[in-house]
Amino acid sequence: MKIKLLPSTIDPEGRVSPEQRLSCFVVDGRVCIDAGSIAIGLTDEERGRVRDVIVTHPHMDHVATLPIFVDDLFGFLEEPVRVHATEEVCALLARDVFNGTVYPPFQNFDNGRTRVMQFVPFEAGEEFPVAHLRVKAVPVTHIVPTVGLVISDGACTVGFSSDTSATEEFWRVLNREPRLDALLIESSFPNSLGRLAEVSGHLTPEGLGAELRKLRHEEIDVLAMHLKPSFRCQLVEELEALGVPRLSAMEPGREYEW
After folding, report:
1. How many beta carbons lie within 10 A of that of residue 153, not counting itself?
2. Across 71-156, where does the E strand assignment appear?
3. Of 27, 62, 155, 165, which residue has the fewest beta carbons closer than 10 angstroms?
4. pTM score > 0.85 for this model?
5. What CATH number is given for 2-257 in this structure?
6. 27 - beta bridge partners?
7. Distance between CA 141 and CA 226 in Å, rounded?
8. Domain positions in the chain
């Protein structure tokens, strides 16, 4: 399995910036997890292949350019862009984004060949197919309805926390998996802002370390994501200070493979 955090910003020389301002991860060049930078970070080849997007929650940094992605593809689609989310999140996206005011209700449109966008609801706690993957969604602890994910291609399994503070069911589900190859887990704020992290539903490096003690799988890659750009250097130092084997900050634009 290959996973890439799509870049969302560039530096003054036009190179990919290490800061993560928007959240969008592409799996095997075919499926996106969240859609913050989906319209600006995909390659042309990926744009031609990605038709499935799993939305973990409706915060803007996770859905910001989804409407533009669908808009770009409108006249060329031969099948709809399928937006997989819980019933609640599908309803929120229809109400707050694809509502005819913020952006057109693409879920109601076709281009003469196909529907342009389709909401595909899933139930948290149940396994469901997305393209070539099998996915389990697990509620996590954030300030809006949010799910973490357990993703498998049949040979490899990866956990994805999405945005969360201290949580429990996610770890119970991961611990029941016969194997786990990698974990992508958030770490948004430095340790000095622990109270802010708590009230906003996020983790600090110290909080990440405490959460990892709930995980029974060993010798896996742990990639910290959702590092707030203003604190990235400090967060990287605090993550390294944890001394957790195979823990590193995820790099936008780099493809990781298991």
Report:
1. 16
2. 81-86, 117-122, 127-130, 133-139, 147-152
3. 155
4. yes
5. 3.60.15.10
6. 3, 31
7. 15
8. 2-257
